[in-house]
Predict the 3D structure of the following.
Amino acid sequence: MTHHDSGSERPGHISLGEDRWLLVAVAGLLSFVAMLDMNIVNVALADIADGLHVSAAIAQWAVLGYQLPVVALLLPVGRWLDGGGMRSAVLVSTAGFGLSSALAAAAPWAAWLIAARLVQGAFGAALFVLMPVLAMRSVRPQLRGRAMSVPATLGPLGAVTGPAVGGLLLDHFGWHAVFLVKLPFCLLALLVAWRAMPRDARPRRPDHRSLADALLVAAGVAVLLLTLTLASNDPWWLLLVFAAIPPLWWWLRGPGGRPVTGVLGASGLFRAHGAVLALAAGFAAMHYVVALHLQRDDGVSATTTGLIVLAFPLGMGLAGPLGGRLADRYGARPVAVTGAALTAAGLLLLVPLGADWSPWQVAWRLALAGVGMGLNGGPTQALVMSTAPPDRIATVGSTVQLARSLGFTLGPALATAVWGLTGPANGVHAGLALAAIAAALAVPLIALPGRPPAPVPEQTTDAAHT
């Protein structure tokens, strides 16, 4: 405990003399908003295409324009934010996120909209990295499970509820409201952070080496994300994945990548990251297959489908706070393992999904899987962040978010591929079996403890850059 406390007094850290739950609430609020933006625009693409007089393919970049920089910049942003300046980073990222969202709503043509979304995605990447770090540093170590459960639960809830919220706004106010709905949340978060966060040092400015690292990672991850996105329609796009290897390899072999792989290997965090990716992929695959089956095969209306699928976030929202409390009392690992096992069980029970199932039969299985995700999210995040060396917390936060984001993208792509290979008759069961297997893989990955943290390599190189 003393080790973490002393690290928390450096510039950019919040003093642990008191628990600042208001800042934990800000972390949860901004996590919800940032994840909401990953899916809320999907339902408005047709209206955006009509309103801006562009094709559906161009309108799709209103979504990709946000998702690509979010995923591509997570690692560079995490390395940069390890330099300190927490308050300044939160204020600038929140203000930039809100302003670019307003600019997107005011877009008179498609190029304007796509540019605004690219900028918003860059600020979104910073928010994804900052929020778990802010929650962790705002409370005493013995309360971290409870604190980490707030952004870990509200973030995925934002992703799940995005389409439902977007549909309501679209029906009553038009596509501009899909971008404007986040502004009140950003303003509230700005006001609270401005008043409640202690002043600290400014973040260090990115140097030429940092910018080069950012370009390499952004290029490799962007190609990887595009490959997974396009492969859902045509498996031949998977060949594009080879184009992502050279930039990522150069980055991993250089001074920017070695500290990242070093801290993950030294702290035994690779398995935990694999569990995060597996659970995210399992959840995303399930969500895609169930919604598609209910509407396409069973003829269920979009409204009824939305209500059935909401059983998952309902279970998750109810179990999230409980998971944090249990983790603080009994330890993060056993609670995280229990949550992953419940998620796998819920998804496994969905595999025989048939046309004769009632909405209740689908909903309670989704709720069980959601309860598992709620129990797992906060404890897993606390387990990972507490294992990280104090001077690499932002880096580890960024790698966790990257694993989760890749899982959300990988799940539907794999489910689509399996559905296509097994045919219409067996595609639903194969896709749900894939989701269950992915979730089940997370159980042993979390259950096996890692080695205690070791000194991080390449710190002298980092010091040279700063």
User: Anything to note?
Assistant: The first helix runs from residue 2 to 7. The CA atoms of residues 366 and 465 lie 48 Å apart. Residues 1-205 form a domain with the Growth Hormone; Chain: A; fold (CATH 1.20.1250.20).
